[in-house]
Specification:
By secondary structure, the protein is an alpha/beta fold. It has 13 helices and 14 strands. Helix 6 (156-170) packs parallel to helix 8 (214-247). The longest helix has 34 residues, at 214-247. The termini are far apart. The relative contact order is 0.18.
């Protein structure tokens, strides 16, 4: 056993769905470094982003609770104002860790280009980050306490990874560290990947999943080509990060996690982007390499963003605060112990931005189990898929008489889980009334203007 707590490197992309890797069987993906990493890691094959949109996921990662409690149910709000903690990085600091954050934050809500002051970084004491940008070839960051913006050189995910590698070489010592690296891609726009990677993917050769209807096929191929180009560029960056861990000897005492904040429909079911309850939006990669863990393999336990705070704290030997919604999976990662966990919640609390009431968006709650996905809207049961027999979710069983008992059983389990976490499944307009989120004149969630120093 190591004489000190393990270090942690936590890498997460934006909008990278679980299906889009070579190790997951995607014929379009070129991800050799992730594939090799997966072969040495524990892969949670039912990992989800239970509220599949940026800020709610990130807030649940940092708090260990569902959005109905931390109140970041939409993007572009200030978590520090909405919720008083405890926060993941604060807990790691109290346990003796040096905490570092590089890349996209999207938890401050005071303008996407604005400086995030140290008291709103939720316990991260080393900082080279920014609120939110998807201008990958020309984006800015803030370093430490300096409110002056600085420009990332070139493709920002490359520059961010280079900085993470420099941090590992030059900024680490006897004190255990927790380094979070947050990439903006493969989130759209899809035409901004480095040219050398973009050239590898021709829309005409993209192989579509069987659940992309013909009406969405042309757009899906165009977008997928750019999406996979971003993913391949990130894969190369991840490989450099792993090489640096090896060269510095840190791989022997560092837990490495790779995941994403949500997926992208990319034409499946005729939909694009996130927030939707289908697998391409909800399911995310989740790989953990532990130097003294149970070893490589797969685990079917459903794991979600609120579970990450208690799991990471336990893996780092830090106390887990009372009252979290999340479940601790550290025993599964360290020793291969069965988690016993059979389901996790799905939710969209309020349709907004890319999926609004006026373009088909709706509130929903659901359960993702080891085999089934069940979702209800305010109108009643909406979706039931047997993912074991129908992985592309092409047959909705919710109104099939032979599955009525399954619907009733899952609906009762869902109701019990919602009571457990204090979620009253309110109409989104009621949530707007309660929370008073700033709105645009058209009634959508506002993105506040930025004021750079």
């Amino acid at each position: 056993m190591t004489e000190r707590p393990f270090n942690l490197v936590f890498v997460f992309a934006d909008q990278w769905r679980a299906q889009a890797t070579g190790y997951a069987g995607d014929p379009n993906a070129a991800t050799p470094n992730l594939d090799a990493f997966a072969a040495l890691s524990l892969s949670f094959t039912n990992a989800v982003s239970g509220c599949p949109v940026c800020s709610p996921y990130r807030a649940s990662l940092m708090t260990g609770v569902y959005p109905n409690r931390h109140r970041m149910m939409v993007n572009d709000q200030c978590l520090h104002r909405l919720y008083k903690g405890p926060f993941l990085a604060d807990c790691l600091r109290e346990a003796g860790y040096r905490t570092a954050y590089i890349g996209k934050w999207h938890l401050d809500g005071n303008g996407r280009n604005a400086f995030v002051p140290p008291d709103r970084r939720l316990g991260f004491d080393w900082w080279k980050g920014f609120e939110c940008s998807h201008d990958y070839q020309s984006s800015f960051y803030y370093f430490g306490d300096d409110p002056k913006p600085h420009r990332w050189a070139g493709y920002d995910a490359d520059a961010q990874t280079d900085e993470a590698c420099r941090f590992l070489r030059e900024e680490t010592g006897p004190t255990p560290f927790a380094l979070f690296l947050s990439w903006g891609p493969p989130h759209d726009p899809f035409d901004t990947a480095p040219a050398s990677f973009a050239a590898r993917f021709d829309p005409r050769t993209i192989r579509l999943p069987p659940n992309v209807p013909e009406a969405a096929a042309d757009r899906a191929r165009r977008e997928m080509a750019g999406y996979y180009a971003h993913g391949s560029a990130l894969d190369a960056a991840f490989g450099r990060l792993l090489d640096t861990l090896s060269a510095t000897g840190r791989e022997r005492d560092t837990i490495v996690v790779f995941t994403s904040d949500h997926g992208d429909m990319l034409g499946s079911q005729g939909h694009f982007r996130k927030q939707r309850p289908w697998a391409e939006s909800v399911r995310v990669p989740f790989l953990v390499r532990h130097p003294e863990g149970a070893g490589p393999g797969v685990d079917p336990s459903p794991i979600d963003a609120p579970d990450l705070m208690p799991t990471l704290l336990a893996l780092c030997g830090a106390p887990i605060p009372a009252g979290l919604h999340g479940r601790d999976f550290s025993g599964t990662i360290r020793a291969g112990a069965p988690s016993g966990i059979e389901d996790t919640l799905l939710a969209l609390y309020l349709p907004f931005h890319q999926w609004r009431y006026d373009n088909g968006g709706r509130e929903y709650r659901g359960l993702h189990t080891r085999r089934y996905s069940y979702v209800r809207s305010l109108a009643g049961p909406w979706l039931l898929y047997d993912n074991g027999n129908d992985p592309w979710q092409q047959r909705n069983l919710v109104d099939v008489p032979a599955h009525a008992a399954r619907v009733a059983e899952l609906d009762a389990r869902l109701a019990a889980r919602l009571r457990e976490v204090g979620d009253d499944f309110a109409d989104g307009r009621e949530i707007l009334r309660r929370e008073q989120y700033p709105l645009t004149p058209a009634g959508d969630i506002a993105i506040l203007p930025s004021h750079r120093s």
